[in-house]
Specification:
This protein is of the alpha/beta class. The chain has two domains: about 200 residues, Spore Coat Polysaccharide Biosynthesis Protein SpsA, Chain A, CATH 3.90.550; about 90 residues, no CATH class. Helices cover about 45% and strands about 15% of the residues. It has eleven helices and ten strands. The strands form two sheets. A seven-stranded mixed sheet has the order 3-2-1-4-8-6-9, with helices on both faces. Strands 5-10-7 form a three-stranded mixed sheet. Strand 2, helix 2 and strand 3 form a beta-alpha-beta unit. Helix 5 crosses helix 11, helix 9 crosses helix 11 and helix 10 runs antiparallel to helix 11. The radius of gyration is 19 Å and the shape is globular.
Length: about 300
């Protein structure tokens, strides 16, 4: 039986891990192990993992926060399987999760399951979170560059991992270490495939405009690192061309608003979204998210360790 190793990077995951580990316990393929890498135990996560000692689950505990890349690399270094799955700690895998990933990478391909975001019933979710999630997945399946969607629900064979190498430690904050890895798989000559059957419920962390704008800002900053390493990778423009009123607004916001100003505006929009029509709230949130990504790209040094 092929063994799949599931690597789970986790920080502050004590409330999330029971849902994930219970879902793994219900798998219809018993050939798996899980390595939970606790990136500084700030909430008793190690004790939570210990409650699942009846499963093939073990923990690696960092004495202090080292970041997601370090957690991923430590987990994969300990993995024993021939199929290596990355699974974020806020996912809820279906019972056929392990079996489908094994099948998807059988021919040496790298496989991605998209997130199916589970958002709380908030004005942000209704106006922006849910419709954006649906359009994101639709766009992904039409995309000619599936490697760009490498994230926290994906798998490779051990042969692929040993060929491509570990995640790049130069990505120290939020974002793009996963896109970097997808691109490296792509240029290695392997095929990266999106598998609709592996869409997995994701208890998404960004549930307010403020948190979503903060992630967009960090992602924009991290893109600079990616571009420096992979200048030939085909990407959409980091800053939209001034071909429409909307694009000009996004450019102006990204060029002139500071990180602090963007987050203050996002907090205000979270309050306004309770009373504004969804269509208006959606535009305001989208403007801040898109402008935030441009601002982070233009001023990558204006970041702090938020993740």
């Amino acid at each position: 039986m092929t063994l799949a190793s599931i690597v789970i990077p986790s920080r502050g995951g004590a409330r999330r891990l029971p849902t994930l580990l219970s879902a793994l316990a219900a798998q219809d393929d018993a050939g798996w192990e899980a390595i939970v890498v606790i990136d500084g135990d700030i909430d008793g996560s190690e004790v939570v993992v210990a409650r699942y000692s009846h499963l093939p689950v073990r923990a690696i505990v960092f004495p202090q926060n080292q970041g997601r890349v370090a957690a991923l690399n430590a987990g994969f270094a300990e993995a024993q399987g021939d199929v290596l799955i990355r699974c974020d700690d806020d996912l809820v895998p279906a019972p056929d999760y392990v079996r489908r990933f094994k099948s998807a990478v059988r021919d040496g391909d790298a496989a991605i399951g998209l997130y199916r975001n589970d958002l709380p019933a908030t004005p942000y979710a209704a106006a922006y979170g849910k419709p954006t999630d649906e359009s994101f997945r639709a766009d992904a399946y039409r995309s000619a560059t599936p490697w760009r969607y490498w994230a926290g629900n994906c798998a490779v064979t051990r042969v692929c991992w040993e060929s491509v190498g570990a995640y790049d430690p130069d990505y120290r904050a939020y974002g793009w270490e996963d896109v970097d890895y997808g691109w490296r798989i792509q240029v290695s000559g392997r095929r990266v495939v999106l598998v609709p059957e592996l869409e997995t419920t994701h208890r998404v962390a960004a549930v307010t405009t403020r948190s979503r704008v903060l992630r967009a800002y960090h992602s924009g900053a991290a893109r600079r690192t990616f571009e420096g390493k992979h200048p030939k990778a085909p990407l959409p423009a980091a800053e939209p061309a001034a071909t429409s009123v909307w694009n000009r607004l996004v450019r102006a916001l990204g060029r002139h608003a500071s990180r602090r100003q963007l987050l203050a505006a996002a907090t205000a929009v979270d309050g306004l979204a309770r009373v504004l029509p969804h269509s208006v709230s959606r535009k305001l949130i989208a403007l801040l998210v898109e402008g935030g990504a441009v601002a982070g790209y233009r001023r990558p040094s204006d970041t702090t360790t938020d993740f």
